[in-house]
Amino acid sequence: MSSAAAGEGSSSSRKGKEREEDGAGGSRRREEGDDVAVGELDMGDLYGAAAGWVEARTSCPHLSAMPAAGADDLARVPPPDSPCFSAQCHHPAENWLCLICKDVLCSRFINKHMLIHYQETGHCLALSFCDLSVWCFTCDSYLDVQAILELRPIYEVAHLLKFGERPPFRSLEVLDLSTGSSSSRT
Fold it and tell me: CA 174 to CA 181: how far, in whole Å?
């Protein structure tokens, strides 16, 4: 195999899907993982993570670690302007709410107290007081609070505390696999 064929010394990326010549005058469909010459527009880069957006997960196997969303648990949610609970920090911004124990700790971009909390306790679910997003440290992913019904009560309380009003929830399309029809629920 030549060094160009192995990707060495060539100026190409390994993304996208296009048609290209196969060298015998024909063409073939180029699949993801095939080389794209530098300077070519790779349509695959315009979508998903390559475009800079993150797609949140619509399920998480770690939700069972959260306490049931009863009135007592929801009443323990501190206001979004709470400083980091760490004795050596008390940073006022970029804080996250642990969805297991309700501690408020600063982000990995400040002093990493929420990350340390996860590493020490295994409490993997946290809600950002900045944008009310939910992160699972174990899945290493954001979770879709609109699609995951177990997250809605805590998200609703945090939204109410932050903005003084209930959040707008999109309706969830539910497909009945037995009939093929869809209905919506909120």
Answer: 8
Q: Do the Cβ atoms of 171 and 152 come closer than 8 Å?
A: no
Rounded distance, CA 143 to CA 56, Å?
5
CA distances from 47 to 29, 41, 51, 131, 140 (A): 19, 12, 5, 23, 20
Provide, rounded to the nearest whole percent, the portion of the chain with pLDDT above 90: 46
- Indicate whether 166 pLDDT > 60: yes
What whole-number distance in Å separates Cα of residue 186 and Cα of residue 163? 21
Q: Tell which wins on pLDDT, 102 or 8.
A: 102
The encoded tokens of residue 94 equal: 């970029």
Question: Given the DSSP bridges, would you call strands 134-136 and 125-128 parallel, antiparallel or unpaired?
Answer: antiparallel
Evaluate if pTM is beyond 0.70: no
Query: Quick one: how far is CA 76 from the chain centroid?
Result: 25
| 13-41 as b/e: b if 16+ CB within 10 A | beebeeeeeeeeeeeeeeeeebbbeeeee
Extract the tokens encoding 140. 């290493």
Q: Could you tell me the two tokens for 47?
A: 């979508």
d(CA 35, CA 46): 17
